[in-house]
Amino acid sequence: MKIRDVLLSEYGKSSSIPSPVNRMMTDFAIGFRDGYDINLGVGYVNESTIPRQQIQTACEAVLSNPEKYRASLNYGGAQGSSNLIESIRKFHIDNRIGGITQDIFDTRDIVIGANGATSLLESITHLLPAGIVVTADPMYYIYCNDLERKGFTVIAVPEDNQGLQTDLLKAKLKTLGSGKETVQFFYVVTVNNPSCTILSNRRKREFVEIVTELSYEVGRKIPLFFDNAYRDLVHDDTVEPLESALCYDELGLVYEIGTLSKILAPGLRIGYLIGPKGAFLDSIIQRTSDIGFSAPLINQEIASYLLDNGIEAQIEKVNKGYREKAKQVRTWIEELLSDSVQECRGGSAGFYYYLTLANITTDSNSDFFKFLTRTTGHADIDGPTRNPHPKVIYIPGEYCVHRNGEMVEIGKRQFRISSGFEELPQIHDALKYMKDAIDYCGEKV
Questions:
Q1: Cα separation, 116 vs 259, whole angstroms
Q2: Helices first, then strands: H and E counts in the chain
Q3: Do residues 170 and 208 lie in contact, with contact meaning Cβ atoms separated by under 8 Å?
Q4: Nearest by Cα to 205 from 136, 137, 254, 257
Q5: 416 - beta bridge partners?
Q6: Fewest beta carbons less than 10 Å away: which of 21, 267, 311, 416?
């Protein structure tokens, strides 16, 4: 008798097939040679920004003060450490992050994710009914791919240099007609990943107004999630101070997702959600309990100590480093690639640049991609089979734009590079290889 394989849910079936980015990064990682190949695809923070000594000091301080940091090596509560929640609240109020005041927090609460901000995003997909999710295009491809595997329909609205275009959003909603009833939530990254485009305060306010109006129209509150993963990494002094959408949310629709990964350390796995008190936040807390009680309590208490002791200096140090790298990388892009670059976004926040080439495709089947991954089939370009010339990885725009959206064609000429993880000499080498790849593509035309 033949025995069938394990039965999978629809989500399980779709998850058994790795996403395109997953496949690409896995294939590259298998043969990656440290110090030789260059990875501009990963969104890792720069190792030099992680405050190792301060984290060690914080750990010792937590363990030596069991009265304040109670049972820090035990299980924690599902909402998160009360110390960390208070530290986050104080950090926002004392520094007037986005204009947040105590009055705003009086009607909001904070929940700590089980495993970073991503775990909160994942919980949202389990707690809200499947339906339409509206986001920006280019989109945060990792989360949007997950949404579609879970049965959501993603509608991506093109952005410009101020973020998601609200006039196009209104037009999209109008074309939905009665389908607007199935819109379950809106999701936008305020400093967009992949493009690092900063959502302007004016657009943010308009966004809240549009979702508020839609909520009244359909007769229920439609949540609006702002992902602030890179908000604390705005290192361009000419950018207007970013406002929190919580400041003009009168109906109780806005939720903000924050993280300490970019300013402290991803390994601490601290993500948090600020939003209106009520059933949805309660469901997030229960979800966290269901999947493991809370984030490791020792990590939460360490994070609390760090927020209470010198976080402003740490943020200043991190942004100084990324600002210097961003300026240098921009200079090199202009020197080496400017003749072929139609548009370059980024450089004011975070550590990504998002480039659009004028006449050259960048997808995984393109000559540009093959040159940089040394898979052209030409020995003089690829190098020896057993020891190819240096490879360079980036995130092709084809993965960053929605496959059913309006940016499919232009996405084939776009790509994201990260200036976060690799050091400047490696980034310079990578851009020189990209210049060679562009020349190679020109020769083949």
A1: 7
A2: 17, 14
A3: no
A4: 254
A5: 354, 395
A6: 267
Q: What's the first-to-final CA gap in the chain, in angstroms?
A: 58
Cβ atoms of 372 and 391 within 8 Å: the answer is: yes
Hey, which bits of 44-181 come out as E strands? 108-112, 132-137, 153-160, 163-164
Which token pair is 315?
Answer: 């943020």
The pLDDT averaged over each successive group of 10 residues in the chain (445 residues) is 90 89 76 91 93 98 98 96 97 92 94 96 96 98 95 97 97 96 98 97 98 98 98 95 96 98 96 97 96 93 97 96 97 96 96 97 96 96 94 96 96 96 96 97 73
State the pLDDT at residue 245: 97
Tell me the two tokens of residue 91: 């950090």
The one-letter code for the residue type at 286 is Q
Amino acid code (one letter) for 385 = T
Give the DSSP H or E segment for 410: helix 408-411
E strands of 324-370, at which residues?
Answer: 341-346, 352-357
What are the tokens at 306?
A: 């760090």
